[in-house]
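hi!! sorry for the late reply, been swamped w classes. u asked for the two structures so here they r. pasted raw, havent cleaned anything up. first the sequence of the first protein and right below it the tokens
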Amino acid sequence: MFRQFARSLTLGLVMAATATAVMAEDAVKTLNFGIISTESSQNLKQDWQPVLDDMSKKLGIKITAFFAPDYAGVIEGMRFNKVQFAWVGNKSAIEAVDRANSEVFAQIVNADNTLGYYSMISVHKDSPYQTVEDVLKNAKNLNFGIGDPNSTSGFLVPSYYVFAQNNVNPKTAFKTVRGANHETNILAVANKQVDAAVHSSDVLDRVKARQPETASQLRQVWKSPLIASDPLVWRKDLPADVKTKIKDFFISYGKTGPDVAREKAQLNKLTLSGFQDSTNAQLKPIRQLELFKEKVKIEADVALNADEKKIKLDDINRKLNDIAKS
């Protein structure tokens, strides 16, 4: 009798697990794909929608684009499960991983098959300033455009390489500082609404393709070291079978199947050649960069006494060691 009970219990558990898996699959009828606001939502929707339509057909799940006025909106959307997967920057991905139960599963590949892009600072082509040093020397007379606080290339990278390493606080150094997305900053420089502004190289490439005359008004005075290409992230609690379908779609898009030529054309509008597998490991250099930026800030803080400074620096060094070992 005990064996019969055990067999019945085992069978019941198996059936329950199967039913749960089926329900999980059946429950996923729609998914929201978050798109960070690197430029206007109109341009982003125009370029991404054909890819999302193809994904809907391939997965048999309605995929809806989710836009927010800033990067934080997409991260919060993932945190509260209003967004299930997204295209984000590396810094935004860290926020999603740490605060929104998410993980990296893929990475974009540029149209030239490279795996990175750059942060840039541009001035108008008629500007008297030839270098970033010129911009910093004359900051008190200049209006400056910076990126979203959760942007890797628009905020974190220039904050470290341009400002922290030169002991400059942009909030107080410039006449005015305005925050905006990459496209808006590019247009602001072109229209002489600001004297200099931060933007990414990939968005500049897209502006060159759509508005070559506008892009021709800019001249770059600074370019960062190479930044790893943007990741794609998903919520960890997505059903495993749905994760597999999503990942297979991205990795194979524009590479195999009868619609390769059309898919490549869609990717070209995004200045991409495709997507490749990735993990949270690609975020390690950005985590280190955030800590290095904080370290430089603390070292330069004359208001901190020696003991307080040592405690804070020891904590940062411990975190850097933990990242290096992970």
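now the second protein. again sequence first, tokens right under
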Amino acid sequence: MLPRSITRRRIAAVGALAIAAGLTLSACGGDDTAGTDTAAPAPSAQSTLAKLVPENIAADGKILIGSDASYPPNESVDPATQKIVGWEVELGEALAAKLGLKADFQNAGFDTIIPGIQSGKYELGVSSFTDNPEREKVVDFVTYYSAGVSWAALKGNPKGVNPDDACGKKIGVQQGTVEVDDIKARSEKCVKDGKPAIEQVVRKGQTEVNADLVSGKIDGMLADSPIVGYAVKETGDKLEVIGQVYDAAPYGFAIGKNSGTMKDAVLGALKELIADGTYTKILEKWGVQDGAITTPVINGAGG
């Protein structure tokens, strides 16, 4: 296994400061065109937690949330309603309700979300961000899930893709993700060992990568474990997981460093969702319960 840092599966360029449901053929993330106004849990202010929400966030009764809705089942756009759906969306809605607020999800390019949090455009980032030290320099995180990296190929693996030796193969990844760094490092090792480089096919949205694999345009793909598992499930007998999951790391809600006690409010609300069973119910509904955590934490505070 190649050594690599444990980072957010989807490694965004963290703005200029830190330096971006089924298998639909079109990517849905990338611009602020779709939002959610779904039937979220009715806001039920928990007095202690609600008091922790900064006044500037609580004033309009909602939390503006940035999310790249091209990553099913975590978040994607329902083609029938054009609403953002997914288990992270439902978790965000339940969390907002715990704070007496409504979640307002805004579809955005992945690599624009953290800069948007820094500028105040978004009050929370919910988009499968891996909590890592580099990102903690510019935002704080409340951890809520654990995911690893998985590979997939066409059923039967007709091109004989081996994650540990994919030299000469055409492999797809989503731009801005750590999978890009992963496949680049593997390709460099191939060349160093005198083998053909990996042909890296980088797409804007994960749904495009999925579609490329189903149509045979690429030989294999890698993405977060729940994303790959969902893609395999949704395509029936067309795809299969190959190799083992590796590099497990936490997802975190991204929160601005100038948001005061907002991180404490989010942590408290998440703890209540875990305690009352809502968290587990949401994950089980979407079939992603294997990544459940029991003890969320705040990381990056004061950084």
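hope this helps!! also noticed smth abt the second:
Residues 178-192 form the longest helix (15 residues).
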